[in-house]
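Risk mitigation, structural track. In case the binding assays with S-adenosyl-L-homocysteine fail to produce interpretable data, a predicted complex structure has been prepared as a fallback.
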Amino acid sequence: MTGKVYVIGLGPGPAHWLTPEASAVLEQVTDLIGYFSYVDRIAPRPGLTIHGSDNRVELDRSRHALELALSGKIVGVVSGGDPGVFAMAAAVLEAVENGPEEWRALDIEVLPGVSAMQAAAARLGAPLGGDFCAISLSDNLKPWELIERRLKAASEGDFVVALYNPASKARPKQIFDAFDLLRTLRPASTPVAFARAVGRPDERIVLTTLGEADPGVADMSTLVMIGATTTHLIARPDGLPFVLTPRSYEAGR
Ligand code: SAH
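Fallback model:
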């Protein structure tokens, strides 16, 4: 009897942002595969084998999951946020595409999760109310020239931009290069938000402008949001202003 692979989105952090579907499946799986910091969120229980691994071995992790499923296990492959957004769903399908024929017949199901840009947007108000795009700044898997081309195209198209993977210890410089480029493309007054560890105890939201932003505040737990020309703030007597990108293009101009 063959098993099954569930690719499960754990959301941005807190348990209340995990879907009921994902919670139920996490109770059923026999094996859990994922990056240490994600599998660490799951409480051990009898009958569950947890296989934590390093961040860089996504394809190995996927092949391991597929092999376990072929041997009859019910495997959960976990990702933070949504598993389809810069995460494990693509890695698992890439392994299937390049793997043995029998992997294609496996039962594989992707369970959605709340992505970081949605959580960050919820904290800020409605920055994604108009057209937006998401770009990963990590150049581990693609050349930096392509990232630059996409940042230029996003500005040309006047999209709100959600930047994932803005910086890490191994890549401290890209976010500075990205801001240098964005400053030549968008007005200095453009609203910019750094939403760090959204939903976790160490959450921190910095709301600023493209002209004044310090890209150094971004780390690997930060989602950076760059406004479009229609994105603006609504002042409030207390706390941070709301960030709004109106749904109607004329309204905010
Ligand atoms: N699949 C995930 C994204 C994986 S890429 C999702 O849908 O959210 C990892 C990047 O996601 C991080 O570098 C950061 O940019 C962003 N991220 C993940 N969790 C976050 C959180 N709680 N707060 C802010 N950004 C987060």
